[in-house]
Structure formats: structure tokens, C-alpha cells
Amino acid sequence: MSLRVRLRVLQLLALCELIAGSIASSDPGWLVPSTVEQLIGGDFNISCTINETYFQKHKQIPEEHCTVDQLYFQTKFQRFRSESDIRILNRTTIIYTARNVTEQKLQYDCMCGVYVINSAKVYVGTSPLKIEDFNCIGHDYYYMVCNFTEPYNELLTKYNVSYTVGTRDSAYRYYIDCNFDVAPIVTCNITDTKEQYKKYGEWYFFRLDIANSFGQLSQTIPINNYERTVPSKPGQKLSVVNRTESSLCLSWEMPRRSNYGSRGLVWQVLVRPKEKPIIQRPNWRNNSSEVKDTLCLTELPYAGYDYELTMRVRANYNQSMWSEPLIYEFQTLAERPRRPPRITNGSHYVLSSEKELRFYWEQLEPHEYNGPNFHYEITEYRINGTLADPSDIDVSTNSAKIKKWDKYAYHDILIGSRNSVNSSVNATRLVIGPVTDEDLSQRVPKNIRSVYHPTNRSYTLSWEAPDDRHGQITDYTVFWCAPKPAIQTDCDGSMHFEQVPNTARQFTTMGNQMPSLNMAVSANYVNHNTGMRWLICTQDMNDDLAKMQPTIDAATKSTLVVKWSNERVCPVILSGYNLTYCQRSTGKPDNCTTVVIRDRYAKQYEIRDLVPYTDYSVKMLMFSKSTASKYSDELVNRTAEAAPSPPRQLIVMHNVSNSMATLAWRPPIMANGVVRSYEGTFHYNNQTDFFKIPAAADELVNNDKLIYYDLGNLSAYTEYEVYVRACTLYNSEPSNLVNFQTTVGVPSKPEKMNVTLTDSITKITWFPPTEPAGRIDFYELSFVGNNHNNSVLSCMVNYILPTQSRYLAIPTPKCKPNSKQEYRLRAINAELLQNEITDEQQQQQPQPSLATLTSRRDNCQLDVDNLSEEEQQQMRLYYNQQRYRLYTSDYLPYGLACSDSTQSAKYQTIEVVVAIIVLGVLCHMVYKKYRKMSDIELVLPPGITENLKKPMDMGGLSGGYPGPDSSLNGLGSNSVGGIICTRVDATTPMDTMPHDFNSCGGSESSKLLLRNNSTSGGAGDAYDDHNDVMVTPSVHQELSTVAPMIDASDGGNSYMIMRHGLPEQAAAAAPITTTPLPIGGNPNGGYIKPTQMKNWPQASNNANTLPSSLPTQGVAMPINRMPLGGYVPVPILQSRPSLPPLSLPQQTTAPQQPPPAAAAAPPPPFSSTNYVQVSDLHKMKPPPNHLLTTSVASAHQQSMQQAAAAAAAVSATATTTAVPSNIIQTTVPTVPVNNFGYTTMEQLQLMKANAAANQQTRHQPQIGGYVTPQDLNALAHNNGHVI
């Protein structure tokens, strides 16, 4: 070696040492080896050495210090410090030894404390592995792509790929560059560049050379190029040759068809209608050539529908691969729909308003539309057989609504389908008959509900039969559809339905249904259908059950009514409820009971047999077959109060007196509420009485405490029976019964003492006291009289009588004149005092005499002769005040007076004489009254006598007999002829008018009553005293037409005389005239004397008829009538006929001037007595002629002025020649009116003046006594009219 070369080598060595030194001085240490490769299960060592130079340079830094004993190894999973893993070689180096290592790829760090000295990479794996998935694909003879998956190995492995064509051992080999970027997938491309890809070679032999640190491997894999070549995607320059409603023909090019040789290609054609399965055909008609391929798809099922064509191709080898598919979408031509929608019975639903109806149908599937613009239409609509406008029905995609539905009519509807081409040939008919209220309420399924089964996504619909079980149900139809959001009675798609037998009560759909369905059911009868009924609720069987919220609705003394609602849960999924109630006697639940309620539709439960007035807690849960809800919150409620148990241990204390007893008892064991009081009941002497005391508050705490009550106001020596009740809001049963007797008390006085005196013996008897208050041990009778100086009343003798004796006979004591004697009797009870001395011991002691004992009380002489020795001995005990207490009653006195017998007889004689004188005076007064009444006698005029002889000619009121004026009949078959009078109160309604008609024929008292406006007749029916004629209610109705005409100015009651019924010819004999009445008072103010009726003048034929609203033309009009008896009433003569003013014709002559006022009021001709004398009747003279006629104007003016006082207007015919006979002239005279109900002298004067105008000579009857109605009737008949 030359010198130059040696120098160069030395320079290089020096440079290496310099570099190594610089590196060594920069690292804190190093590991040997830095990279480790090892097979799985082998061992390896790594040494770690500290660089002392590094640490010496940094020794001034305390942290930069490390010794060998601080060294250890670690990975990201664990640390190695143990002596089995770490061995120290020297002061700077340690060795880590790993044994039987597993497959890994880790970094091992040598650590000094927390600092890393240096790191080494460790790879543990296997020797090279074979390739399992090497494969190649040729792409339409353009290129080939091979790929394989690199086996997992942590050791670095290298792969070299090469191939030969034709034979395995070909001399020429081609190497391929592979891409490991996406390892473990390795891709190797064989392209046509550099002529590597040999497209016509059938077999390729690939060799894979694999090597790593622990070995090498070579692998040969053959590939068939023809089988692995994939044709290109078909459809190049694709075109449509022909298209119809059911077919499609396509054509396309395939340029490299010739490369596939004589074996050719295999095609795959798939045709799928939209959302339908692939149409299965064994082959499709096609035609292939080297230039083009043609495919015709015939007999396609749906017109106007979308299809998807999928087509691919492969070489005709068993293991060849398919090309990328051609996906081509097309649509067949459209045509009219082939059918209408499907519909069934009961597919209609009546809306709640019952004015609209919706019916549903099963929609056509989209593939049945057969073209665009598909919809449904109503082709014909008839109501009760008459064509109607189809536009009245709103049509949607799955239903239609009749807007103006008549539920009582037949609706016949045809529904068809239509698209852009035309309508369907056929239409579906739906007939909806009349629907009654009974159909909607009783002929529909009940309680419809459904359950969702999540396991197979199906629904089960359940229902109950209609209430009307008499109708013949043929079957049921179940409907279901997709729901609209939040609407349970409408569908969001097609309606589906299925019929089930009439015995079915549930229906389960097929699986894979939607998560939510609307379901309904209809009942199909023989001749009609009631329509759909939608379900009430539905729920998942596995749904969580909500927490219940029960309430306690009502509480009684022994029951609680618990109510709840399950609106949030459909009951159909429930199995029942658990109700737990607990008694809370100490404020906490105890004594709990759980009730299982199996009725899933229950809404309430009554808990029974509870303790009254006790707190109970209630909680509930619901459960199904798979789950249960949480218990509800506890509800605490108290039962109502009830009757308590009876009071206990009722006793009577020993301190019973004659008026009071003390009772004691204990409170009831069971209060059952708040004991408010105690009510006691005690019986005695067939009587019952009560007492009541309030309860104390401490009794609620201590029910063993005795309750005391002093029962007072008792009767002495009486048996009592007592029991007590405790009272809350209700009374308990009675306590135990106790009996006691009150002690002896003060008796009442003896009763009814009778003393019988004779000259020698006085006998005395009496009755015992009504209230003995004891046994009545003895009686004491005292005889009391004057003392020796006859001035002081004192006791003389005291008789002691046994109790059984109520009779005493004693000598009659001497009686001094003008002195008093008295017997006094009293009853005595003896009460034994409570001491230790018995009666036997008392008798053994020295006993004083009875006289000695009684002398202490008074100074009377004691008489014990009526007592036996035994009774006297007992009396001595009674009078011993230390042994007995005596209760004495008040005295029953009986007095005697001693007097001179001669003087007594004188007094008796005077009394008898005075009595005789008084009786004689009374008899004389009665006799005088009788004589006075007997002077009244009745002499009937001849006219009356003739009328009585001819009752059939009178008519009117003669019991219905025919007569000249039979129209006045009708008041009863008992009516007889006579003057008819009735009473009308001008200020009283007709229905309340008094009916005392006895004034027309009654007694003298009745007339006096009427004289003072008496209304004693009341409102009842009135009877005639003489004729027994009853005034019926029909008469009152007739009087209602007369009442408005009564003069309201009368101020009192008034009367009217009505026609009797005489011949109308007599009544019409003279014209009607009106006369002004004389003005003046009646000083007499009483009845009309018969003597003043002697010269009763002839009156006009209408003088006393009632006022009428119709004009009278010479004939008396029928008027209301009623039987009349008695005297002449005041208004009879007062109510002279007068008419209201009428308008006169223009040709009426001027009326005459009225007479002077002096002539209009003549002085009264009668005397000032109280009655009208017969002799005074001749004084009634007719008035001057100028008073008989008044002008129409004056009458009209006078009527207007006196309208308020006029009773009525009566028609009258004018008698003057100046006015025609058919013109009525009226005047309203002012008449003084009395208010006592009878005729006055002034009124008789008016009657006399009116009657004198047409007076005719008649035979005047001789009238004696008072004027009776018969007299007036006869007088009127003789004068030719009826009063």
C-alpha cells in the first residue's frame, strides 16, 4: 500500500473516532442492539450502558446524574426491574433478558429514574407465510389486475411477483411492480404497456418469492385468463326500438364481442316493476350479432307503470365473472284503469253531527293506475231512486263525504276509477239505507279496542256484540288503515277490510304492520248495515304502565269508594289492578289488605267492612301480563262516624233519696267517632222520660273513668228503670238496665172526704192520696173547733187510723150556734232511718205511751181506739224521731157551721120568692114579643089569588111550565111565581158577590141585616126561605152581564127587580118614559109600611125592568132573574129605565126647554115614619108633563155630567110629538141613594111619579101589615107591568 493510501485511511479513522466521540458525548447512554428481531417463543437480550462522559459534563446539574443501580427497562405496557429480568454487568451497564417472547412489535426504553437513556425496537414474528387469496381479473381484454392479502407478520417480509404465460417453466418471465400502499391488500397491475399483458394467453403462472430474517418461501399460482376476464358494462349506444302498454324493445352495441371467441357470452336480464318484486321469466327474447344486441321485454303486467331493467354479461365459462350491470328505467304506455275501487258493506261512517256521512274504499295499487292523473269519481248518485248531483259528494283519494246526507233516505252510489286516458269500464255500487237512532245506539259493536304485538308487528282488534241481540247479524267486517296524525277516525292511505263470522269477537292482522293503525268494525245485518265503529284505544303489550292517580270519592262509616281513571292506558292490555288499603291506628300503615281487581274496565271499587271513624291509607297499581306500574301515592281518608258501643257498667249509687238518684257508668269501648253526649231513658208509672248530659273531653283518653250523673226531680217511693246511650252522630245501643226505688216522701192530700152527719153519729169516708209517695203508714184525722171562749180555732181530738182504714164513725160533736167546726185529714209516711237499732231492739227498750209522744206535737186529745195492740206498738216506733222520720201531707179540711134553724128557714123563703119574680118577668117579656109578632098578617090581593090559581099561565119561574114568557125558565124545577130579586155589589166582582137572598122572602132578622149592608150570605148558594129555590151558579154568570150597568155611586149594596114572566103584551102596552127623580133625603130610612103602599100608582110597563144595552121598542127584553123573597130593596125603585144619549137624525125637532128646578124636586109626600104606610101610597102623584120629556141635547149633557154616578142606561121611547117614535130620548135623574139596602121614601116618590104617567084604573087590593113581594107583584100585575 502506498503512503498516500495509508494517510487517507488514517484520516478516515481519525474522523470516525471524532464522530463517535461527539456522539458519545451527546447521548446519556446507548442500547445494544438497537433493533431486535426474534421468532415467537425465542429469547433475546438488550444491554443498556451509561455514558459517563455525558454525565460528567452535566454534573453541575443535580437532576443530570445517574448510576447503574438506577437503570431499568420498560414498554408501554409494563416495567422490568426484577433480578430475573435485569442483570448488572459493571458500574455502567445492565442487561435485560426476555424469555419465550410472544408476537409483538414494541419499543423498549432503558430508564434512569424518570428519564429515558435510550430505546430499542423489538420485532417478534414468524418465518415467511404463504399467500391464500391471490387472484387476477382481466378487464375485457384490455388489462389485468392481480391482488392478494399480505399475511400478518411482525417481522419485516419482502414479496416479489412474476409470471410466465403458456407453461409453468417458460424461459421468459415477466416481473410485476406491486403496490403495498394499502397493505395488507397488495395490488399488482398487468397492463398492455411493454406488451406485458398477453390477452390471448389462456393460462398465467404466477410465482411469489417471500423472504425475511428467518427464511425464504416461493409460491406458484396458476390463473385462467379466459375465466377471469370480465366483459365491459353493456348498453353502449342504447336505444328504444319499440314501446307499448305491455312491452319494450331495446338495442345497443358491444365492440369487443369477437374477443370472446366461439364460446360467446352469457346475459342476465332482470325486470322489476317499481316497488314490486322482479318479474320471473325463464328467458327474454333477444337477438345478438357482432354489431348490435337487441332485447325485447314482452308481456309486462302493468300499463303506464315504471320499470327498472338490470342487465349484465359474462364469458361463457363456469367460473367467469359478471360484468358491471346496466340499470335502465322505463315506463310502459298508459291505458284506462282496468277496475274500480273495491268496497264492502258497512264501509261508511256517520259523523257525530249526523248531517254528513263518509264512506271508504280500498284504493287501487299504484301499478293499477295504468297512467298519470289517476283519481276516483262518482259516476252516478241517486237518492231514493232519483238522480242527484254527484258534485254533492266530496271525493278524495280513499274516501268520499256526502255533505247533505239525509239519514232517512236511500243513497245509491256508483264509484269508478279514471286516469288521463279514460274511466274504468266498470263501477262499484254502494247502497246506504236509512239509519235510525236505534241503529246508531243499539245495533253497533261496543267497547272496541286493539293491542299491538311488537314481536311480529301485528294488531288484535277486540269488540263486544251490539246491545240489540234480536237483530240477525250475518257477519262482521273489520277495517284498518294507516292513521292521519292525531285522528282516529280517518285514514292516510288505503282502507283494508276483511269479513269475519258473526261469532267472532276479535281479529288479528297479518304481521309487519305499521307501528300505528286506525281500526274499526261494523256489524252486518241481513237487510242493512249500521256502519263503521272506530276503536276506542290501542296500546303496545310491552308499553310502560303509567302511575295511577286514584281518588277516594265517598266515605261512610264502614266503606270507602275508590275511583280511578285509565285514560292514559288502554284497558285491553291490562290484566287487572292491585288495591292495597291499610288501617292507620298509630299514624302508620298497619293491618294492610290487598285486593286484586280482575276487571280491567273497572273504574271504582268499594272497600267494605271498615272500622268506623278510623284513618285508612289507599294505594293502587295496574298490571299486565308482562309488567306492572308503580304504586300510586298513598291516599289517607277517615271513615264516617257510626253508633258507638253501649256505655258500660251502669250502676245506681247508694245515695238514693225521695227525689234524686246518682247514676254512674263507664264510656263505651268503641267510640266510633266523637262521643258528644249521653242520653238516658227512665221509665216509671207507665211513663217515660229522658235526660241528656254532654261528654267530657278526657273520656276520649281514659275510657275507664266513671261518669256520674245526679238524676233529680224524681217522684218519691217510685220504681224506676234506667238505661243510657252514648251519642256520636248516631246513638248507641242501650246500656245494661238498672232498677231502683226512691225513698219515702211527702204524700199528697187525701181525696174526696165525705162527712155524713146525724144527731148521734158522724160518718167520715175518704180516698187515698193520688201521690202516696210511700206506703201511707197511717192517717191522722183531727177534729178542730172553737175553744172554751169560742174565739180561737184549735184541735180538739186527734184520731190515729191505720193505713187500710178509710172510714171512721164517731159521735156527733155538740154544735154551738154561730160557731165553726172542721175535720182535717192527712196521710203520713214513716221512713226508717239508717242506724244500728233494729225494730226488735227498739221494742225491747222502755216505750213511752202514744199520748206522751203525740203530746209533744200538739194539745189534741189522742184517740187510738181504732188501732190494734200491734198497730199501737208500731205507732210508737213511728213516732220515735230517732228511728223514723215522718212525712205528713197537707190537711184535707171539711168545715161545718153551726147556726139557728129559724133564721136559716127565713133566708130560704126569700130566695125562692125572688126566683119566682124573675121567672115571671121573663115570661111576660116573651109573651109580649110573641103578641107583637102575631099581629103581622098577610092579605093577598085578588090579582095574586088569581095568579096562584093559574100557575101554568105565569111561565118564567114556575118550574119550567109553559107560559107566555117561557124564555125566563131555567132556574130550577122548584121555582114558583113571584117577584125575582137579586143583589149586585157595584164594587164587588160577580164571582164573589154575596148571595143572601133571604131578604126577598126571609125572616125579620134577615131584613134587618140587609138594612145594615150585611153580607152574611157569603159566597155560597142562596135559598129562598119560602119556595126553597136555590140560586145556581148559572145565575151568577148571567149577572156578570148586568154588573157593569150598576151605578157605582151607590156606595153600598144594591138590588134589582127582574121580570117575573108575565105576558110581554102587557109589558109593551105603554111606551117607555123617563122622569127626573126628586132630590131629597129620606128621614125615615127604613122599611116601607103597608099603609104607605095603598095608592100605588100604575107604572109604565117597563118601569122596573133592568137596564139594557139594547134599545127597547115597546117590548120588554128578557133579563137575568133569580127568586126573590122579602121586602122591597132600595135599588129596585132606584133603577128606573134610562138610556145613554144617542146621536139623532138631522130632521129631529128641537127639544123642549127643561122645566124649572123647583118643579123637578117636589117635596116628599110621606110621613117621617120608618115604613111606607098603605094610606100614603095615594100621595104618589104623576109629575108634570114637561118633566116626562127632555130634549136630546139636554139629556146628552146631563148624561155626560152624571156618568160617574149613573148605574146603567135603559132604552126608552120618547112620548112627545116633537121627536119620532123610533128616536129615544133619555135623561139621567139624580137620585139620593141610601146605603142600607132597602127602599126609601124618595125612591117611592120617584116610582109614584113614573107610574102616574100611564096610570089606569085598576082594582087596588086591600093590603094590611107590611108590604110583601107578593103585594107588590099583585099591584104591578093589576097595573099592567111587573116590578
Write a structural description.
The longest helix is centred in the last third of the chain and has 34 residues, at 901-934. With 1283 residues, the protein is mainly β. 33% of the residues are buried. Strands 60, 61, 63, 64, 65 and 66 form a six-stranded mixed β-sheet that branches. A five-stranded mixed β-sheet has the order 2-9-8-4-5, with no helix packed on it. Strand 10 (135-139) and strand 11 (144-149) form a beta hairpin. Helices cover 12% and strands 33% of the residues.
Kindly name the structural category.
Answer: mainly beta
Could you tell me the strand content as a percent range?
A: 25-35%
Radius of gyration, whole Å: 72 Å
The number of distinct helices, counting runs of at least 4 residues, comes to 16
SSE topology:
Elements: H1 3-26, E1 29-32, E2 35-39, E3 44-50, H2 52-57, E4 71-74, E5 79-80, E6 86-88, E7 93-98, E8 104-112, E9 115-125, E10 135-139, E11 144-149, E12 158-165, E13 174-176, E14 178-179, E15 185-190, E16 203-212, E17 215-224, E18 229-230, E19 236-243, E20 248-253, E21 265-273, E22 285-288, E23 292-297, E24 306-315, E25 326-331, E26 348-350, E27 357-360, E28 375-383, E29 386-387, E30 393-395, E31 399-402, E32 411-418, E33 428-432, H3 437-442, E34 446-453, E35 458-464, E36 473-481, E37 483-484, E38 487-491, E39 496-501, E40 506-508, E41 518-525, E42 533-534, E43 537-540, E44 551-555, E45 560-563, E46 574-583, E47 590-597, E48 604-607, E49 615-624, E50 635-638, E51 648-652, E52 661-666, E53 677-684, E54 687-694, E55 707-711, E56 719-727, E57 738-741, E58 751-757, E59 761-767, E60 778-786, E61 793-802, E62 807-811, E63 819-832, H4 839-844, H5 850-855, E64 861-863, H6 869-878, E65 884-888, E66 892-898, H7 901-934, H8 942-949, E67 980-985, H9 1004-1011, H10 1033-1039, E68 1053-1058, H11 1064-1067, E69 1092-1093, ...
Domain Fibronectin type-III: 234-335, 546-642, 646-745, 746-848
InterPro entries: FN3_dom (IPR003961), FN3_sf (IPR036116), Ig-like_fold (IPR013783), RTP_Phos/Ushers (IPR050713)
Protein name: Fibronectin type-III domain-containing protein
